[in-house]
Amino acid sequence: MDMTIGRNGLAAASRQMDAAAFEIARASTQRPAQVASGLSPGAAGLDSGSGSLTLMATPTDADLPRTMVNLMVASNAVLANLQTVKRTDEVLQSLFANR
Q1: Helix runs in 1-99, H state only
Q2: What confidence category does residue 58 fall into, taking pLDDT thresholds of 50, 70 and 90?
C-alpha cells in the first residue's frame, strides 16, 4: 500500500484548481465595452431596451458560474485526496507499530 493514488489525485485536483483560477482571473480582467462616438448603444454591445444603458454579458462571463462550480469540485477533490493520504499514513503506521 502506498500513497500513489492520493498523490496523483492531489496533483490532478491542483491542476483543476489552477485552470479554474486562471479562468476566473481572465474573466475579471475583461473590461466592459465602451460606447464609441457615433455608435448606437446596441451597436456597441449595450442594451438600452429599459431606458437605461446596461452592459450585456460577454461570452466569457457566461462561463463564470461553470468555472466557479469547477473550482468547488476541485476543492472537494483536494479534501478527498488528502483524506486518502491521511488514512494510508494511519494504516502504514499501525502496520509498522504492531511488528
Answers
A1: 4-28, 59-62, 64-97
A2: low
